[in-house]
Amino acid sequence: MPAFDEAAIDRMIADTQRPLDGFAELYEQVLAVQGFAQDAEKLVTVECSTQGVTALDINPRALRWGSDKLATTILELIGASLADLQDKSNALMAERWGAAPPDLTEEGNPAELRLQNAQDTYDRAMENAMAELARIHRRVDGS
Q: pLDDT per residue over 125-135, tens digit each?
């Protein structure tokens, strides 16, 4: 029976983690992104983050527009701010993964294949470890 190969397990773990290198840092960067939008007259400003609207600044002169125009402007700026947030987040992702980030929902994507390979390697290692334990148990009981 083959001996338990600890180095192979260490290589498998390192290979499995390699695609995730920098992921936590990227995640933190994406969480810190702020979207920004302002009307043409610079009287209303909206900022958004992944948490939603984080700032809304209304110059008192914008109050003269009336409630309908002001409400419409605010809603349009929220949409523009969220679009800016998405664009900035996409730019960060493109820096990490290139122009086409991996589609993790696609059947047979590289991450899924790598995880399946890691699972198979782990399963084989566990089978070998259990077989070794059984062999040791038989040897101890037989003594």
A: 778 778 878 88
Angle between helix 67-97 and helix 23-32 axes, rounded to 10 deg:
160
Q: Which amino acid is at 68?
A: D
Cα–Cα distance measured from residue 2 to residue 131, given in angstroms and rounded to the nearest whole number: 10
Report the amino acid identity of residue 38: Q
* Rounded Cα–Cα distance for residues 113 and 119 (Å): 10
Helix (H) or strand (E) holding 35: strand 35-38
53: number of Cβ within 10 Å? 15
The CB-side HSE value for 26 (13 A sphere, CA atoms) comes to 16
In the numeric block, the tokens 């790598």 are attached to: 114
Let me know how long the chain is: 143
d(CA 12, CA 126): 13
- Are 84 and 36 in contact by the 8 Å Cβ rule? The answer is yes
Backbone torsions φ then ψ of 111, nearest 5 degrees: -65, -40
* pTM exceeds 0.70: no
pLDDT digits (tens, 9 = 90+) for 59-86: 999 999 999 999 999 999 999 999 999 8
